[in-house]
């Protein structure tokens, strides 16, 4: 395993979640689940983050915010959609201003379903995301050597 | 050139090289222990002891990006002067010079944040400036007290004393412990950049620093921590090796105490930090120096 997957720092953005999924994301950081065991830190800064956790669906208002955060993150980066809303739009999918899942705005690497998504599912999704992060990191190194 | 100047220059260069190699290793382990102990205090398992090392290796692998061309240079300068300050201190050089050089390092760090023109980084930078303003009087009074007790600013001069600095300067030592919380960036005085995302405005002074630049900032903090713990240990050093061991032991105890404080206090406003740091400096530092001067 390379270093990219040993210290995944996450940034969490609440797109238009009902706050159910947000509470679960924060629960994963609490003593019961303690994701810092895996080196996971919750940063508030896209420039420091490796993994982007998005909860809730994307709508007309926040699509630009989601894209902005994604663009500010540096490669290698991974996006995890947390909860049914973030995956597909969930119960709000036919709301008048909802565009759908996060993949309508930015490329998503891992989908974690659930309403609300359980902390175990979030941890599973992030671990899944680490493999993707590792691949992207490899690719970046290769590209650098080639250049 | 004068022979003495050449000798001291050479010893500073050698000291800096050794410090640049050893301090990051020690500082990294200290940071790892800090995170582990903090996690245990919060009832968590916590990360591996080597986690800070992995973090920095990861940051070095990240894409290189910077908001301007000068930020990296300022951060390099900050790291360089932190290493030189450590080199001067641990090679037994002039304590006053150490204080000035490490402050210069802080100033470069502040300028690096200001140069990015980001509102979040600027808030962090102005708070860092307030931190420097808060701790600097106490640190300068410490060097004055050191001169009055030991008769020299040279750290190597301490080894020829018959009793350690703590004997005549325990009040200054207490004052230094107070500002140490600011210098180690521990809560309640982690004003410019907190380790805890939930109580931070984006990421304070390091908001715009990313990837390899942030890695250098981390390494600089490790070196600073080692240097500041060296200042703590300095108060117990005299004569031979046992006193050095005592100094190291006290530094370890103080570090543990700082972690405990970090985990038990919420961040205060900068006004409170500035006020209390100056009150402590004037009372502890001022009284101690007055006693030394008149009795
Ligand atoms: S998936 Fe369920 S819990 Fe999560 S934001 Fe949507 S409605 Fe709320």
Write the layout of secondary structure elements.
The complex is a heterodimer of chains A (147) and B (295).
Chain A: E1 9-14, H1 20-29, E2 41-42, E3 51-55, E4 58-59, H2 63-72, E5 78-82, H3 84-88, E6 98-100, E7 110-112, H4 119-146
Helix pairs in contact in A: 1-4
Chain B: H1 3-41, H2 51-61, H3 71-90, H4 95-115, H5 119-150, H6 165-183, H7 211-234, H8 241-264, H9 270-294
Helix pairs in contact in B: 1-3, 1-7, 1-8, 2-7, 3-4, 3-7, 4-5, 5-6, 5-9, 6-7, 6-9, 7-8
Bound molecules: iron/sulfur cluster.
Describe the structure.
The complex is a heterodimer of chains A (147) and B (295). Chain A is an alpha/beta fold. Chain A has a single domain, classed as Rossmann fold, CATH 3.40.50. Helices cover 36% and strands 18% of the residues of chain A. Chain A has 4 helices and 7 strands. In chain A, strands 2-1-3-5-7 form a 5-stranded parallel beta sheet. Chain A has a two-stranded antiparallel ribbon with strand order 4-6. In chain A, strand 1 (9-14), helix 1 (20-29) and strand 2 (41-42) form a beta-alpha-beta unit. In chain A, helix 1 crosses helix 4 (119-146). The longest helix of chain A is centred in the last third of the chain and has 28 residues, at 119-146. Chain B has 295 residues and is an all-alpha fold. Chain B has one domain. Helix content of chain B is 73%, strand content 0%. Chain B has helices at residues 3-41, 51-61, 71-90, 95-115, 119-150, 165-183, 211-234, 241-264, 270-294. In chain B, helix 1 (3-41) crosses helix 3 (71-90), helix 2 packs antiparallel against helix 7 and helix 6 (165-183) runs antiparallel to helix 9. Chain B starts with a helix and ends with a helix. The mean pLDDT of chain B is 88. The A-B interface holds A 2-4, 6-7, 9, 31, 34, 36-39, 41-45, 47-48, 50, 74-76, 137, 140-141 and B 35, 39, 42-48, 51, 54-55, 57-58, 61-63, 65, 197-198, 200, 202-203, 206-211, 214. The structure holds iron/sulfur cluster.
């Amino acid at each position: 395993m390379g270093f990219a997957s040993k210290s995944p720092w996450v940034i969490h953005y609440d797109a238009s979640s009902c706050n159910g999924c947000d509470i679960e994301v924060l629960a994963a950081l609490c003593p019961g689940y303690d994701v810092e065991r895996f080196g996971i830190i919750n940063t508030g800064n896209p420039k420091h983050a490796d993994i982007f956790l998005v909860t809730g669906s994307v709508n007309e208002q926040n699509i630009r915010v989601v894209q902005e955060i994604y663009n500010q993150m540096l490669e290698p980066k991974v996006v995890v959609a947390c909860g049914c809303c973030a995956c597909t739009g969930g119960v709000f999918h036919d709301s008048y201003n909802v565009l759908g899942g996060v993949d309508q705005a930015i490329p998503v690497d891992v989908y974690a379903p659930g309403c609300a998504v359980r902390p175990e599912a979030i941890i599973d999704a992030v671990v899944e995301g680490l493999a993707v992060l590792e691949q992207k990191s490899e690719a970046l190194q290769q590209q650098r050597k080639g250049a | 050139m004068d022979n003495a100047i050449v000798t001291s220059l050479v010893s500073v260069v050698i000291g800096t090289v050794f410090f640049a190699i050893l301090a990051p290793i020690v500082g990294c382990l200290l940071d790892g222990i800090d995170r582990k102990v903090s996690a245990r205090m919060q009832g968590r398992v916590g990360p591996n002891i080597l986690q800070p090392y992995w973090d920095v290796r990861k940051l070095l692998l990240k894409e290189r990006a910077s908001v301007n061309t000068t930020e990296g240079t300022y951060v390099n300068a900050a790291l360089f002067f932190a290493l030189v300050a450590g080199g001067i201190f641990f090679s037994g050089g002039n304590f006053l010079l150490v204080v000035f050089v490490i402050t210069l390092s802080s100033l470069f760090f502040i300028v690096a944040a200001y140069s990015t023109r980001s509102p979040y980084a600027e808030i962090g930078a102005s708070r860092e400036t307030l931190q420097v303003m808060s701790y600097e009087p106490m640190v300068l009074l410490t060097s004055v007290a050191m001169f009055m007790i030991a008769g020299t600013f040279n750290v190597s001069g301490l080894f020829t004393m018959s009793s350690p600095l703590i004997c005549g300067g325990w009040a200054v030592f207490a004052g230094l412990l107070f500002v140490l919380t600011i210098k180690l960036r521990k809560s309640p005085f982690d004003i410019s950049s907190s380790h805890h995302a939930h109580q931070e405005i984006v990421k304070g002074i390091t908001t715009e620093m990313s990837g390899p630049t942030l890695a250098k900032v981390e390494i600089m903090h490790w070196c600073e921590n080692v240097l500041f713990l060296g200042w703590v240990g300095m108060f117990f050093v005299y004569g031979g090796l046992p006193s050095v061991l005592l100094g190291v032991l006290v530094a370890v105890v103080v570090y543990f105490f700082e972690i405990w404080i970090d985990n038990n206090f919420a961040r205060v406003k900068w006004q409170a930090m500035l006020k209390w740091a100056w009150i402590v400096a004037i009372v502890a530092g001022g009284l101690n120096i007055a006693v030394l001067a008149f009795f």
